[in-house]
């Protein structure tokens, strides 16, 4: 067993999974209001186009549930920061959700910054959590004075708990290295590169089963060769001698 004091959560997955949750909650609200229709979907698609994020909706044939593209990290950051919620909600509502999304992005950036003051991060995290839990005011049956809050405690995910209650203490404990030193993003990137290389190569050699080595071996050999080229100064190959044949 790894002792608990040696465990640190991964900032990349905190970003990915918490963004997923905020996005789901936003869509769930539209659904709840009965407005998740073709028009809304096309507004979302248009906004994604403006943000240059490739995004699609499709309806699952059996369950009739609407599914959508799962975005990569950089696209998620773009949506989190710049998606215009006013296209989907009345201004006051859009501003409240935007404030929550911005607050999360700021928290994420503070977490990755080695120079962040842990005590300040703790304060900032707790404030964000209470914003997430903003209660409703008034009675929905009197819509004029009713102000809808944000979300419920049972909508908090384990990553949110880790970020809010443990982010600041881990930052303090590991300030020598910073959070980024433990990030999974390099490993994920490597995985992505390897998978792309694999598919590129499989398509190219046309599936010659006799010549094909195991995929893992092929990827590792390929990587080995490119690393060798990157780290070694290779002497230029001697000039090709011309041979004259009479
Ligand atoms: Zn805990």
Descriptors for this entry?
single chain; 246 residues; mainly alpha; two-stranded antiparallel sheet; 8 helices; 2 strands; binds zinc ion
SSE layout:
Blueprint: H1 11-32, H2 38-50, E1 57-59, E2 66-68, H3 73-82, H4 91-112, H5 118-132, H6 158-173, H7 185-205, H8 215-231
Helix pairs in contact: 1-3, 1-4, 1-6, 4-5, 5-6
Bound molecules: zinc ion.
Distance between the terminal alpha carbons, to the nearest Å? 76 Å
Q: What's the total helix number?
A: 8
Ligands and ions found: zinc ion
Overall shape: extended
What is the alpha-carbon Rg in Å? 25 Å
Q: Uncertain regions: pLDDT < 50 for 5+ in a row?
A: none
Give a written overview of the molecule.
The protein has a domain at 8-20 and 75-182. It has a two-stranded antiparallel sheet with strand order 1-2. The chain is built from eight helices and two strands, in the order ααββαααααα. A hairpin with a 6-residue loop joins β1 and β2. It is extended, with a radius of gyration of 25 Å. 55% of the residues lie in helices and 2% in strands. It is mainly α and 246 residues long. Zinc ion is lined by residues 161, 165-166.
């Amino acid at each position: 067993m790894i002792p608990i004091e040696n465990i640190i959560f991964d900032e990349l997955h905190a970003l990915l999974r918490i963004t997923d949750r905020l996005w789901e909650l936003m869509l769930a609200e539209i659904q709840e209001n009965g407005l998740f229709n073709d028009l809304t979907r096309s507004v979302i698609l248009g906004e994604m186009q403006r943000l240059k994020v490739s995004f699609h909706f499709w309806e699952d044939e059996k369950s009739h549930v609407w599914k959508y593209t799962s975005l990569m990290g950089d696209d998620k950051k773009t949506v989190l920061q710049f998606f215009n919620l006013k296209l989907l909600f009345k201004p006051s509502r859009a501003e409240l959700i935007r404030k929550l999304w911005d607050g999360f992005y700021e928290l994420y950036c503070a977490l990755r910054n080695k120079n962040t003051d842990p005590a300040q991060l703790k304060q900032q995290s707790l404030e964000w959590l209470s914003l997430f839990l903003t209660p409703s005011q008034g009675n929905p049956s009197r819509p004029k004075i009713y102000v809808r809050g944000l979300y419920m405690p049972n909508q908090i995910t384990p990553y949110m708990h880790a970020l809010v209650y443990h982010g600041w203490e881990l930052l303090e404990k590991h300030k020598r290295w910073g959070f980024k030193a433990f990030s999974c993003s390099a490993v994920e990137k490597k995985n992505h590169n390897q998978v792309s290389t694999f598919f590129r190569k499989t398509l190219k050699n046309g599936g010659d089963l006799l010549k094909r080595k195991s995929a893992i071996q092929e990827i590792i050999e390929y990587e080995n060769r490119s690393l060798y080229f990157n780290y070694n100064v290779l002497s230029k190959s001697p000039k090709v001698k011309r041979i004259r044949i009479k």
